[in-house]
Amino acid sequence: MDIKMLRTAACLVLVLSGLCVGEGILPPGPLSGAVAGTVKFTTTLTPSERPFLSVRWNFKEVNIITSTSTDIIDDGYSGRISLDRATGALELRKLVLDDSGEYVVTIAQDGGLQIQGKIKLNVYALITGANIRSPAAILIEDKSSTNLSCEASGSISTREWMKDNRPLHQSDRVSFSVDNKTVSLQPVHSSSHGTYQCRVSNPVSTMTAAYDLTVNFGPHNVSIAGPSAAAPGQKVTLECKADSVPPANFSWMFNGNDTHVNNSMYIIERLEAESIGIYICTASNMVTMRENSTVLNLRASCSAPRWSFLLLLISTLILRGFM
Question: 145 with 185: CB under 8 angstroms?
Fold first, then answer.
């Protein structure tokens, strides 16, 4: 015997006693509502020419309303409910958390047959005051650890963590507490630097908090942007770059000697023989106490006029004592 036949048989038994559980009389649920808000328990019944003999709604042990020729309303629901006698739908207002639970409607149709439906209501407090907290500390990559805690008020169903608007996943450095309230970074890395978001939600509200985490790192990826060869007499600009928080300080050396240039730009107004050689840029971070260097070998361009190249070569040899 299939499920449909079993339901039919059960309903026939209940009919003999004057009650049948109406299949689909209420949506499957559960319904969700917000504290101080309104929810409507709609039925799938269409108004008929003959009104229902009675409509009764119950919640736990309380008879919310019994509607026949008159309405009998429980004192606790006075001013909070409205009943549609044509369909049996009930509107419940000024919701409180204690309104959560199972609601039962019993409808007596013309002819004496009673049908019944059940549905669950979950009431949630709106999410408010979402924020992310972290211990105050100076964080240095690969040396420091920290954690971020997501706080909020209201009925919290889920917490979701993101970083720079992308989902944050567990890794060898990232771990989450069982309730997802706290994310731990052990130890922090340069990739840990950025904006963290925590989205707190329930079925009736969502709130997102953000926190900018500063991780001091570097300098990494030091490089010199500029030509490795240029024509004699040409202006040459070299720029030193590095990934670093806080921004790196720069210093330059030329052929092993300090140039006293202490910024990211090194400008050669006119390339001469004495400007050809090895340029070293050193980037340093005063918080991490680390530094890294890179090298550029600046040469005279072979595309320069032959007489200019020969003159530059002769001048270089003279300066170096070969002639």
Answer: yes
Which distant-in-sequence residues (6+ apart) come within 8 Å of 273 by Cβ? Answer: 232, 312, 313, 315, 316, 319
Which of 148, 127, 141, 132 shows the shortest CA–CA distance to 243? 141
- Full-model pTM: 0.78
Confidence of residue 210 (pLDDT cuts 50, 70, 90): very high
Burial class from Cβ neighbours inside 10 Å (0-12, 13-18, 19+) for residue 170 reads: exposed
For 148-204, the pLDDT digits (tens) are 999 999 999 999 999 999 999 999 999 999 999 999 999 999 999 999 999 999 999
Rounded CA gap, 86 and 75, in Å? 24
Task: Return the CA Rg of the chain.
Answer: 39
Neighbours of 192 (CB within 10 A): 21
CB-CB contact of 280 with 212 (8 Å): no
Closest CA to 13 of 66, 5, 181, 268: 5
Percent helix, strand and coil across the chain, each rounded to 5? 10, 50, 40
Q: Which domains does the chain have, with CATH numbers?
A: 3-124 (2.60.40.10), 128-213 (2.60.40.10), 218-319 (2.60.40.10)
Nearby residues of 81 by Cβ (< 8 Å), 6 or more positions away: 64, 65, 73, 90, 91, 92, 93
Question: Can you read off the two tokens belonging to residue 134?
Answer: 């972290």
